[in-house]
């Protein structure tokens, strides 16, 4: 805390000096060299993986404000300089045009293409946004004996469109998207404590559902928890309740539904995240100052 | 934590339902009606007072990013919609054009005028930024028997220009400005704990100096602690050390030194802050989820 200046990002992260970050850099280099275009799940373990959104400057202020207003769903980890593909806070030297395995290109809010490199479409008015992702707290949950079922099943987490509008910013609004992980009520205090200490990875749960023979969640407007809008179905066991977190698909929905829609936007392809130089523990807050 | 949705601003604040916010509203109304143009120090006690920066949209993205990169000095509490004077997150219904007692108008980075109302100069491309201020943690320190000396003396805190450049964003850089409060080393753990729980009010200290017969701080580039660049001199007692925090004058220096300078910028006049609807405790983090 006191040894030297720490003026940047007290939350959501603080970089340590004693971390070997070469595994993250190696992963990004593999993407850059065209040697890897798969899912990043389980890759470069321990390093923070992140959602990516790229927008023209004309839309960037209002998207940044959208993220600040809806920071549970859109925890900002880094914003690039206008025209620069380098996320200098979370991965100095990285290049957002090449260092992800797969990208999605959105034209006027419609998905247009999936590509493995965006160097050709990059413009000097582009701004890159790096947003936290729940992988960071899933690892922490597993370390404390609370591995989420989707991790145990090696499937994607269940994600649902809700009926709750986000807080609007300029053209961006859309409804909140949530992820769901089932837990017994007795585990909830620990689940809340652990995930709340990762505000840069969506933080604590936003809602807990009820034990229910025909699982649904009327508060969030989810008719059937067995039919997720994104990801895979994850069964809710006897005596478990569905626990919901704000989800990083939310900004993608905000871009799809933006009015006016941005003429172009680029995101990571689902599961094909940006691997940052940060380790999960550096995103953890509320620890004793050290 | 779990009763309903909390998707906005998990940090730096969370609004409670049971707070009577009429004293803050009354203070703002007095400013709006021209009935008050003095310092807000000690007014509407318990409510979060904030720094204000208003910039044209053309400069707003890069200023927002400047704040995110230098969040110790520039803790963002709210950003308005383009053209809107309403800081809807921290004070719904308030009007940034009238609700502060005094403003400064900066033309091309030079201080041009002090006025009590900016309705006449408001433009529909203006964006308002509301930034936290250390008043919030000073009250918390006092409640735990650690009242800062500047509060005891009823003077302004000592503030200094340092030689440490901020992290640049577009045209904004400048050097960090710090405030100083003297404490005996034995009080430091409590001082760190208390102030660190207010990241929205600059958070914990960024540096501690040495006990020194001729007080200076070479690390920060401060030649004589008895001659602050802003505010009043505050004596450092026998056996005390100077403790430094990032200071809300930093963004003002970044605007003065911006290259290119914004053609127009508006800030609060020193000590004439914006009184928000938030109470100090709502900015506190790291409490048990409730």
Automatic annotation (TrEMBL), chains A, B:
<dbReference type="GO" id="GO:0016829">
    <property type="term" value="F:lyase activity"/>
</dbReference>
<dbReference type="InterPro" id="IPR038021">
    <property type="entry name" value="Putative_hydro-lyase"/>
</dbReference>
<dbReference type="InterPro" id="IPR009906">
    <property type="entry name" value="D-Glu_cyclase"/>
</dbReference>
<comment type="similarity">
    <text>Belongs to the D-glutamate cyclase family.</text>
</comment>
<protein>
    <recommendedName>
        <fullName>DUF1445 domain-containing protein</fullName>
    </recommendedName>
</protein>
<dbReference type="Pfam" id="PF07286">
    <property type="entry name" value="D-Glu_cyclase"/>
</dbReference>
<dbReference type="InterPro" id="IPR016938">
    <property type="entry name" value="UPF0317"/>
</dbReference>
<keyword id="KW-0456">Lyase</keyword>
